[in-house]
User: Fold this.
Amino acid sequence: GGEFFLRIEDLDQSRVRREWEDLIYEDLEWLGIRWDAVPLRQSDRREIYLQALKGPLRDYIFPCVCNRRDIMTAANAPQDGEPAMGPDGIVYPGTCAPKGPVDLEQLSWSEVNLRLRDWGAGDLTLGFKECGVSAGRHLVSLDDFFRTIGQVVVWRRGYAAYHLASVVDDADQGITHVIRGHDLFEATQIHVVLQYLMKLETPTYHHHRLITDDDGKRLAKRHDAKAIRVYRDQGYSVEAIRDMVGLPLE
Assistant:
């Protein structure tokens, strides 16, 4: 009795190809999956994401000038030991982090990177329900979150980061169940924290198994893989593909 929404997450324009998007539609239609509204396109929603930063998140973000090399250098400092790794890579070591809220009025939003600030939440613990590969109730300790995931980027030089865009879109579309690949399971903690700060409902999540090649490598368009099409050409059935990712046959 629910509705199925399809979202085109095209914020990173360096990875956008029209033919890849067309393959998404083609593969889903072949699998018998139909969507109930025009697909939402994230690249059209910049101002909506910006309002989230200027509104509910304004006291929890700060500007950061560090690039990846800066972060790697700081994280690999001899006195700090091995750098911690989170879902977005090396955990940000806090180089630009302020001790309190910052004045955002003078920022150039098209040039600045913004990160989520560790606001000292202490022993606050959040949670979410997972129905997929790691089914169960999962807790998110804010103390552990900032230690193992860090002060993540929510805005990158004029565009919303994936985490912010996903949370805002889920709320705007009234999403109750999020279905996506298991490679995003750890990132769900980031979304739960953002939902808490923005006073939004946390959906139920289902992270399905990923489709891999014969070497166990995840199929991805950027690696020139043809994803589901390669299996279709080899004679695989719809039922076989659904079984691969752990989705019901009906």
Q: What stands out?
A: The first strand starts at residue 7 and ends at 8. The mean pLDDT is 87. Residues 111 and 157 are 4 Å apart (CA to CA).
